[in-house]
């Protein structure tokens, strides 16, 4: 099967077909499957705890925590790596500029979506997310393995796309200019600072002017993305005009990638990500720059 259009999502049945075609020696585009399974705790070794236990055949492990380590005094949990670091890591995974990357995880697609965004940030648009992730793969009864593919180091040339990322300073300026619509993927309790629901000591509220589109509303019960019509309705009901510039945010710039992907599914090529998100905003913004209404 020849891939001519690199969709935001690929289905489990399509990926299984590609894996079997490759094993049978059929001609096919260069495909690399990345297992991005992890937890929010960087001390948890996702390679050992998840990937080594079982994974999709022919997948290799993508270590987001290792690629984007946070260190004090940074307020950003997953800082964008410099271009040389990203290039070196991509080449260690055997990726080239012609590789079609398919990524998945075991965490409601959160880490896979961040991986999808990172590759697009560095100019690689031949990247898709496995719809429903590892959970859907297992639900469909498809094979898993503990075998790891042999990887040969490659040549990969990244090109940063600055239109896909926003800084704290950009977001402060946007409060005045309102150039970008800001959509926040956190739940309503955090967005509106509902102290009756939020854990003690948790900072709630949102960037003034933001619209709330909670991450879970993007998905069906099986973890796959909702239909085009349903996703379009989600944005419309939140008052988001996808014909206008959009920047996505959340707590740590993870679930925000789901908003960017949902818009991409609907044909919007560029949705920026505030990579500091509310974790940075809550610690750097002035008191009047945190809204609860």
Automatic annotation (TrEMBL):
GO terms for cellular component: mitochondrion. Keywords: Repeat, Transferase. Pfam families: Rhodanese. Residues 27-146, 176-290 form the Rhodanese domain. SMART domains: RHOD. SUPFAM superfamilies: Rhodanese/Cell cycle control phosphatase. Signal peptide: none annotated. It comes from the Eukaryota. InterPro entries: Rhodanese-like_dom, Rhodanese-like_dom_sf, TST/MPST-like. This is Rhodanese domain-containing protein.
């Amino acid at each position: 099967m020849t891939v001519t259009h690199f969709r935001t999502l690929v289905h489990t049945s399509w990926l299984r077909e590609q894996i079997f075609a490759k094993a049978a020696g059929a001609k096919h585009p260069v495909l690399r499957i990345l297992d991005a399974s992890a937890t929010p705790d960087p001390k948890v070794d996702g390679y050992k705890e998840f990937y080594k236990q079982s994974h999709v055949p022919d997948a290799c492990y993508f270590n987001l925590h290792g690629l984007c380590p946070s260190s004090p005094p940074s307020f950003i949990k997953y800082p964008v790596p410099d271009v040389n670091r990203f290039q070196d890591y991509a080449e260690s995974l055997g990726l080239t500029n012609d590789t079609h990357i398919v990524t998945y995880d075991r965490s409601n697609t959160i880490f896979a979506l961040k991986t999808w965004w990172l590759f697009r940030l560095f100019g690689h648009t031949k990247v898709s997310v496995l719809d429903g992730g590892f959970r859907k793969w297992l639900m469909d009864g498809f094979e898993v393995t503990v075998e790891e593919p042999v990887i040969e180091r490659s040549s990969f040339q990244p090109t940063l796309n600055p239109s896909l990322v926003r800084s704290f300073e950009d977001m402060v300026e946007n409060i005045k200019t309102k150039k970008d619509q800001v959509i926040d993927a956190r739940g309503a309790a955090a967005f509106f600072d509902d102290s009756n629901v939020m854990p003690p000591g948790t900072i709630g509220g949102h960037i003034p002017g933001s619209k709330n589109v909670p991450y879970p509303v993007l998905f069906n019960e099986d973890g796959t993305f909702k239909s085009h019509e349903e996703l379009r309705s989600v944005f419309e009901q939140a008052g988001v005009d996808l014909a206008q510039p959009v920047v996505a945010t959340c707590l740590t710039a993870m679930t925000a990638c789901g908003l960017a992907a949902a818009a991409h599914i609907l044909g919007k090529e560029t949705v920026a990500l505030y990579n500091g998100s509310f974790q940075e905003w809550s610690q750097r913004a002035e008191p009047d720059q945190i809204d609860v209404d």
